[in-house]
């Protein structure tokens, strides 16, 4: 494990030049079929197919001859490097470089500064920052001393994180983390224990490990009575396999804070008997120890939910909670001394007296109950996240408290957005909401979380085991802010008097126009690696997800038989009303006239984290794994207001 981790660290810490050297070495090894340390022209032709490029034979031979300085009829060492450089020459980058360089050989400090300000839209860029970038990306020591950037250094900058479309300033934790929990979108998982479908899939602690390591902060635990008095976790009334509740808790304890220090929420769906609920409470208390939040912060009665900062490295239980009256009654009936007096007092502070009509209903219900459904030991571990049924927004406002949370199926949540979008937005400014996938999604498919985020729903639970468009949007959204699993909502989704309606967005939200010139692609992987001679015909699709009126897609034409360095040079235009909620997804597809286009790679990011100017977009696989060095090169320009709008 240590050896593997060292290798991973080595690769991830490589700069652009080191990656290029490794890339060259790998290609040479793959192309040198007879492993004699030399490459014949026949081997070069084979290599071109492996590299996903179709090239005229005469042109390929001319490049080969130009690189074969020893005239040996083969390429070795530096000759192969020169051949590769000729093959990968970026004419579009060279042209850009020469447009700012007086002599076409280098960029002086002032020329590079002009480029950063004019093209990269870094208006506040100083000479000191430009010099820092030259020191970071110029490969030659003489260039660094003279404060100039060569073509190689310029390309190295464009391929770096500073030249990436994702703003590096949004990668660490950059948002205010001291606001109440309900002011954040929270990365959430549905039926976290499942690693397959909802009917026959395998249950495994691996589901929790994967979710927590990708920054998920709310995991779901469905608990049922198990053999030998030990509660088990599985999808009830299905053929999914079962795992022990205590193993799940132990896994959460181990992995909760490996990726993020901010609080983890255990969403409990409890179907256990009284006795096994007591066992659950014991496991939670003993295994989680100090990590478990078992009382309000400092024992003080709050007036709002605590912040992620205040709850650092704490695990919160979300679930049903007894009222004080029920606790007292159950204690008399069952003589179960589960709640301490201090806890009872605290609960009495939390609970207000019910309305007379509600009190009568409670009294009737009490007569019917012979045995409590929820034991006080488990109830007492639910502090800030008491699960309550949703009836209406008016009912919630009149009867519920800030520490209570309602869950909605995706169908119900979408209906409420259409029927009462602004009320839903206002509801989510003071109380948490959790949305979960429809029960019809037995294949563990996902819904688009963006529709629910538009209404300010904080916990939009996803089937994280299922890759695809919806998880790309989720991962892209939570890539910002240090990947900590918490993203601060826009101010109009935090204002309790907000007039925002996700279906009818109006002023004062600032509309913007986005121009994207899709320029070129680099080293796109093959879709079907089993066919040595197959070459991709790539096209780029750009999708915007946001409020319904902003959702749009456009695509380029396809480039025939070139996955190595395709050139598009096409400009796409989008008009967006609510940029604060917009997500961009770039997808590269392999055109197929006979059937659906095949997926090559994608990258998804929030509009607010996008850098303008000439940027590289480093592609990810369906599972979110880096496909480096595969990338597309674009020019991004954002204009305020809608093009052609009178305002």
From TrEMBL:
Co-factor(s): Ca(2+)
One GO process term, biological-process aspect: lipid catabolic process
SMART domains documented for this protein: C2, EFh, PLCXc, PLCYc
Topological relation to the membrane, as annotated: Peripheral membrane protein
Keyword Chloroplast on entry: no
Broad class of enzyme this protein falls into: hydrolase
This enzyme's EC code(s): 3.1.4.11
Biased composition (Acidic residues): 328-356
Entry-linked InterPro entries: C2_dom, C2_domain_sf, EF-hand-dom_pair, EF_Hand_1_Ca_BS, EF_hand_dom, PI-PLC_fam, PLC-like_Pdiesterase_TIM-brl, PLC_EF-hand-like
Pfam families in the cross-refs: C2 (PF00168), EF-hand_5 (PF13202), EF-hand_like (PF09279), PI-PLC-X (PF00388), PI-PLC-Y (PF00387)
Domain EF-hand stretches: 19-54, 55-90
GO cellular component annotations of the record: endoplasmic reticulum; membrane; nucleus
Chief location category: cytoplasm
Residues annotated as domain PI-PLC Y-box: 378-494
Reactions catalysed: a 1,2-diacyl-sn-glycero-3-phospho-(1D-myo-inositol-4,5-bisphosphate) + H2O = 1D-myo-inositol 1,4,5-trisphosphate + a 1,2-diacyl-sn-glycerol + H(+)
Keyword Protease tagged: no
Protein function: Hydrolyzes the phosphatidylinositol 4,5-bisphosphate (PIP2) to generate 2 second messenger molecules diacylglycerol (DAG) and inositol 1,4,5-trisphosphate (IP3). DAG mediates the activation of protein kinase C (PKC), while IP3 releases Ca(2+) from intracellular stores. Required for acrosome reaction in sperm during fertilization, probably by acting as an important enzyme for intracellular Ca(2+) mobilization in the zona pellucida-induced acrosome reaction. May play a role in cell growth. Modulates the liver regeneration in cooperation with nuclear PKC.
Record's protein name: Phosphoinositide phospholipase C
Name of the coding gene: PLCD4
């Amino acid at each position: 494990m240590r050896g593997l981790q060292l290798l991973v660290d080595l690769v991830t810490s490589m700069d652009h030049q080191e990656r290029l050297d490794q890339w060259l070495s790998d290609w040479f090894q793959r192309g040198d079929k007879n492993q004699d340390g030399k490459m014949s022209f026949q081997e070069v032709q084979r290599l071109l197919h492996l590299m996903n490029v179709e090239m005229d034979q005469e042109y390929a031979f001319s490049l080969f001859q130009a690189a074969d300085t020893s005239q040996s009829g083969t390429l070795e060492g530096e000759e192969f490097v020169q051949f590769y450089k000729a093959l990968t020459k970026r004419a579009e980058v060279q042209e850009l470089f020469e447009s700012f360089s007086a002599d076409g050989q280098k960029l002086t400090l002032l020329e590079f500064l002009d480029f950063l300000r004019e093209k990269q839209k870094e208006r506040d860029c100083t000479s000191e920052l430009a010099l820092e970038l030259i020191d970071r990306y110029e490969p030659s020591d003489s260039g660094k001393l003279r404060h100039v950037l060569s073509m190689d250094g310029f390309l190295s900058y464009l391929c770096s994180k500073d030249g990436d479309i994702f703003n590096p300033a949004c990668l660490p934790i950059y948002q205010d983390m001291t606001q109440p929990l309900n002011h954040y979108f929270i990365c959430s998982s549905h039926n976290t224990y499942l690693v397959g479908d909802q009917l026959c899939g395998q249950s495994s602690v691996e589901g929790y490990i994967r979710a927590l390591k990708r920054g998920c902060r709310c995991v779901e635990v469905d608990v049922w009575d198990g053999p030998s008095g030990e509660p088990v976790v599985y999808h009830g009334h299905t053929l999914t396999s079962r795992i022990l509740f205590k193993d799940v808790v132990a896994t959460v304890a181990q992995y909760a804070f490996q990726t993020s220090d901010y609080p983890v929420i255990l969403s409990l769906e409890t179907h256990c008997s009284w006795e096994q609920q007591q066992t659950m409470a014991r496991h939670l208390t003993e295994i989680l120890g100090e990590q478990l939040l078992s009382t309000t912060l400092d024992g003080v009665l709050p007036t709002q939910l605590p912040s992620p900062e205040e709850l650092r490295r704490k695990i919160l239980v979300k679930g049903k909670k007894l009222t004080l009256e029920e606790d007292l009654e159950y204690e008399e009936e069952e003589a179960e001394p589960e709640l301490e007096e201090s806890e009872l007092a605290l609960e009495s502070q939390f609970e207000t007296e019910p309305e007379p009509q509600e009190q009568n209903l409670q009294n009737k219900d009490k007569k019917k109950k012979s045995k409590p459904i929820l034991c006080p030991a488990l109830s007492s571990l639910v502090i800030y996240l008491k699960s309550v049924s949703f009836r209406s927004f008016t009912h919630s406002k009149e009867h519920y408290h800030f520490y209570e949370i309602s869950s909605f199926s995706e169908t119900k949540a979408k209906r409420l957005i259409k029927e009462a979008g602004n009320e839903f937005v206002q509801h989510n400014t003071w109380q948490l909401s959790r949305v979960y996938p429809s029960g019809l999604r037995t294949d563990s498919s996902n819904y688009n979380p963006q529709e629910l985020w538009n209404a300010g729903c904080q916990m939009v639970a996803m089937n994280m085991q299922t890759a695809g468009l919806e998880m790309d949007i989720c991962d892209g959204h939570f890539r910002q802010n240090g990947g900590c699993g918490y993203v601060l909502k826009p101010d109009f989704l935090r204002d309790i008097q907000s007039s925002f309606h996700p279906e009818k967005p109006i002023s004062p939200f600032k509309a913007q126009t986005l121009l994207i010139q899709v320029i070129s692609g680099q080293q796109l992987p093959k879709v079907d690696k089993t066919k040595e001679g197959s070459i991709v015909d790539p096209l780029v699709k750009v999708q915007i997800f946001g409020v319904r009126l902003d959702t749009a897609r456009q695509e380029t034409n396809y480039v025939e038989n070139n996955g190595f360095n395709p050139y598009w040079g096409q400009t796409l235009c989008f008009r967006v009303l609510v940029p604060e909620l917009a997500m961009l997804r770039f997808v590269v597809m392999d055109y197929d006239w006979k059937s659906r286009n095949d997926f090559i790679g994608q990258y998804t990011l929030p509009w607010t984290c996008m850098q303008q100017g000439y940027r590289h977009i480093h592609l990810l696989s369906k599972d979110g794994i880096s496909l480096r060095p595969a990338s597309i090169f674009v020019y991004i320009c954002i204009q305020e207001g809608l093009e052609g709008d009178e305002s």
